[in-house]
Specification:
The chain is 29% helix and 26% strand. By secondary structure, it is of the alpha+beta class. The chain folds into two domains: 229 residues, Enolpyruvate transferase domain (UDP-n-acetylglucosamine1-carboxyvinyl-transferase, Chain, Alpha-beta prism), CATH 3.65.10.10; 194 residues, Alpha-beta prism (UDP-n-acetylglucosamine1-carboxyvinyl-transferase, Chain). Strands 24-25-1-26 form a four-stranded mixed β-sheet, covered by helices on one side. Strands 2-17-19-18 form a four-stranded mixed β-sheet. Strands 4-5-3-16 form a four-stranded mixed β-sheet, covered by helices on one side. A hairpin with a 5-residue loop joins strand 14 and strand 15. Helix 1 runs parallel beside helix 7 and helix 6 packs parallel to helix 7. The longest helix is centred in the middle third of the chain and has 13 residues.
């Protein structure tokens, strides 16, 4: 198992480029199951989660090929419609194969997704939506079995207790493209990744209107056709790099930044006192004065993304004064707080909120990642901390950030990837592998797909 050795105290500066969006690529790759022709997706990041999705598709008989940052997918009429537990358990986004499979083949058997606890992080809205379209849904031995002759359009509401469901919207929207008649999805997720999926499907012959709004209108078509598509830039990676500039007192220009999709986040940085310059597809972040504490809530789009909550908390740990952070999407998403405290932060968690009293400095220490975005937050804190920080379980980070340490080192950071001497020897979870946490599966929870 691999770890990071981070030597803090460096001021980051320079230019860095954002890669393609993980949270857009995954549902697009899943939706390719609905298309009988060849699909080419450009800009797919080389991540562990992408490798897991491709392995899942391969296990079903789908032919995939990777070349120069593009992935070609061909799902023939002869593939199996079984998505097995061994792979689906590793990544929640795997459940997005359910809608495309039942819509095209009339049958899908998909394991309940990894980390899913019915009643806590349920997929009941996915199943509700597919049932409304006419699918017969059964839960048997940890699998969802969905059957239909042909789906039929329906009026569906996807509002959940913490807002609209992103993966649920992707699943139901993909299925509805092949349903007979018109489907209306109310309280649809508005995230840019959902919009990108709609753009992909429309390019393949679907008729989806209203993407990016709360109401989708989908007129079903008989079939979809071959398509080439380029995924949008990763707004979460862009935000993480922006926080790296802020937490180190640096000056970073972020290229290929999806500025229009992180407006709330950019406004929050400005309120903190950072200099933020947006120009076309680039974002420059500079620290020119002492930062100010802020209060914010992580909310569904267009609010502050929950996937940037942990990174912002790491930054606020060094901002003088008292800040308050509330997560309205994942109320329990504060496992990183205890590890930040190990570095010297003053954070108190109360329910779905945290109170942060800024400290003068952080000090390097051994810390452990609990999930993808917590990993990023601890890397950022380590960059600002005095001395050396050892970050373990970085396979979480590899799920969502491609060559993250190389990008940071190009800006002046000192982050070394190395084998963890305290863990059993195993190869790191790079693109093309699906290593998972065998020590503590309960910590391998995935928060950034809901």
């Amino acid at each position: 198992m691999e770890m990071f050795l981070i030597r803090g105290g460096r001021t980051l500066s320079g230019t860095v480029r954002v890669g393609g969006s993980k949270n857009a690529a995954l549902p697009i790759l899943a939706a390719s199951l609905a298309i009988p022709g060849a699909v080419v997706v450009h800009g797919v990041p080389q991540l562990r989660d992408v490798a897991t999705m491709l392995e899942l598709l391969n296990s079903m008989g789908v032919i995939t090929e990777q070349l120069n940052g593009a992935v070609q997918v061909y799902a023939s009429d002869e593939i199996t419609t079984l998505a097995p537990y061994e792979l689906v358990r590793q990544m929640r986004a795997s459940v997005c194969v359910l809608g495309p499979l039942v819509a095209r083949f009339g049958l899908a058997k998909v394991s309940l997704p990894g980390g899913c606890n019915i009643g806590h992080r349920p997929i009941d809205l996915h199943l509700k939506g597919l049932a409304a379209l006419g699918a017969d849904i059964q839960l048997t031995s940890g699998y969802v079995i969905a059957r239909c002759r042909r789906l039929k359009g329906a009026d569906i509401d996807l509002m959940g207790p913490s807002g609209p469901t992103v993966t649920g919207t992707c699943n139901v929207m993909s299925a509805a493209t092949l349903a007979e008649g018109c489907t209306i999805i109310r309280n649809a997720a508005r995230e840019p990744e959902v919009v990108d999926l709609a753009r992909f499907l429309n390019s393949a012959g679907a008729n989806i209107q209203g993407a990016g709004t709360e109401t989708l209108e989908i007129h079903g078509v008989d079939s979809l056709h071959s398509v080439a598509h380029t995924v949008i830039p990763d707004r979460i990676e862009a935000g993480t790099l922006a926080v790296a500039a802020a937490i180190t007192g640096g000056d970073i220009t972020i290229q290929n930044a999806p500025v229009a999709s992180i407006t709330s986040f950019v406004e929050l940085l400005s309120r903190m006192g950072l200099s933020v310059e947006a120009l076309n597809d680039s974002l420059r972040i500079r620290t020119r004065s002492e930062l100010r504490p802020v209060d914010f809530s992580a909310e569904p789009y267009p609010g502050i993304p929950t996937d940037l909550q942990a990174q912002l908390m790491a930054l606020l740990a060094l901002v003088p004064g008292e800040s308050h952070v509330t997560d309205l999407v994942f109320p329990e998403r504060f496992m990183h707080a205890a590890e930040l405290v190990r570095l010297g932060a003053d954070i108190r968690v109360h329910g779905n909120s945290a109170v942060i009293h800024g400290v003068e400095k952080l000090s390097g220490a051994p810390v452990m990642a609990s999930d993808l975005r917590a990993s990023a937050a601890l890397v950022l804190a380590g960059l600002a901390a005095e001395g050396q920080t050892e970050l373990r379980r970085i396979y979480h980070l590899d799920r969502g950030y491609q060559a993250f340490e190389k990008k940071l080192n190009s800006l002046g950071a000192v982050v070394e990837r190395m084998q963890d001497p305290l863990s059993p020897t195993m190869s790191g979870p790079h693109f093309g592998t699906t290593a998972r946490n065998a020590e503590s599966p309960e910590l391998d929870r995935v928060f950034d797909q809901r």
